[in-house]
Every structure is written in C-alpha cells, then in structure tokens.
C-alpha cells in the first residue's frame, strides 16, 4: 500500500470491516468501493486498502460458522475479486474475544507504529488513518444498551478513528444518529447506496437452508467452499 502521484496532499485511509462474514457476500466487498468513490469526492482521504477481520469463535451468534471456515471463505473471495486491495487479517479470528476498539488499535499499531505508515509520492512515510467500515445495522447497535462500552465508542467515534457507514434499506440512520452524542456524530461518515443492494449473510443462510440458489450474490469460490464443507445446511440435513 502506498500513495501515488494523483494522491498528493491527501491522507491515506485504510478501512477495517469487523464482522462475522458467515458467509461473506458481494456487498461486503462492494462496501470498500463505495467508500473509495465517496471519500475521493467528499473528503481529503484516499482509500489505499482495507481489511476483512472475521470475529473469533468465542463470539456466540446464530449461524456462525467456525472461524477457520469464515477466514477461508474471506480469503477465497479476496483472491478472486479484490486484486490485493482488500486483505484478510486473522488476528481477531485467533483471539478468544476482542472488542472492536482493540481490533482497530491492532491495525493502527501494525500500520503506523510497526510499519511506520505508508510511502507517499516522494517516498516519505506518512501515517495512515484507520477507520471502521460497516453497514447501517452496525450503527443501530451503538444505541442498544449493553452492546458497546461508552469508553470504546468514544475511542472509535473520535477524531483518531471514525466510522464509514453504508446505508441499508429499512434503517433510519438519521433517527439513530440523533440519539448519539454530538461529538460521536461528527466522525460518522454516511455513504448512500446509489445502486441498492440489501443482501446480507442472514438472508444467504436462509436461502441455503431452503436449498435456494445464492449464485451471483456470493463469490463463486465461496459457494464451492460452502458446498464442499456442508456449511449452513438445515438441521438434520447434509448438503
């Protein structure tokens, strides 16, 4: 990752998408492209890369495949379609459990402290802005009591980190944002979908349990992996 000549004077941005990815869908990949276009038009940031960070097995959630399977599916999707711009980071998946704030700190440490940032067009090292990437459903959890630590939210939704959020049908983001502290709202960047896409992992799992096709909703190599390993079959059914 580095800044090119056309990025001179812009701040390098790296996005971290933390989630289950059970399974990963095209929308998970598409989110990075939407932020790249939006940030170029509306901010001084330039997206130079992003990471998928699957949660570990200690995170108990219905329909959650094993971490190793979710990591493998993410890597298949990235290898086939992302051309090295989106990468898979396994640090979170290998932990018992880590709050999202700690995961973002991990990326900040690796990119800025350990690697010293990225090169600009003149060969100088500059610090990377690491930010959280998610859908509107993520913001909904910000206002649910007991889901997030106020300390962690303050850490994430600050001038140091921030969040880029993709709108989703059925979620009133404006209403949710009014319920957040003003200083948090300042660092949440909302990207509207110009081409509507409401595919979700939950819907994909539902289709699989009904033996419905998920082709063109999920990368083909991921579909092959799901079939090969018998993931997401209905109870008592063998795929």
From TrEMBL:
InterPro entries linked: Cyt_trans-like, Euk_NMN_adenylyltrnsfrase, NadD/NMNAT, Rossmann-like_a/b/a_fold
Gene Ontology molecular-function annotations: ATP binding; nicotinamide-nucleotide adenylyltransferase activity; nicotinate-nucleotide adenylyltransferase activity
Enzyme class, broadest EC rank: transferase
Main subcellular location of this protein, as a coarse class: mitochondrion
Reaction equations catalysed: beta-nicotinamide D-ribonucleotide + ATP + H(+) = diphosphate + NAD(+); nicotinate beta-D-ribonucleotide + ATP + H(+) = deamido-NAD(+) + diphosphate
Coiled coil: none
Cofactors, names only: Mg(2+)
Location relative to the cell: Mitochondrion
Pathway note: Cofactor biosynthesis; NAD(+) biosynthesis; NAD(+) from nicotinamide D-ribonucleotide: step 1/1
Gene3D superfamilies reported for this sequence: HUPs
Subunit structure: Homotetramer.
Purpose of the protein: Catalyzes the formation of NAD(+) from nicotinamide mononucleotide (NMN) and ATP. Can also use the deamidated form; nicotinic acid mononucleotide (NaMN) as substrate with the same efficiency. Can use triazofurin monophosphate (TrMP) as substrate. Can also use GTP and ITP as nucleotide donors. Also catalyzes the reverse reaction, i.e. the pyrophosphorolytic cleavage of NAD(+). For the pyrophosphorolytic activity, can use NAD(+), NADH, NaAD, nicotinic acid adenine dinucleotide phosphate (NHD), nicotinamide guanine dinucleotide (NGD) as substrates.
Protein name (database record): Nicotinamide-nucleotide adenylyltransferase
Organism of derivation: Trichodelitschia bisporula
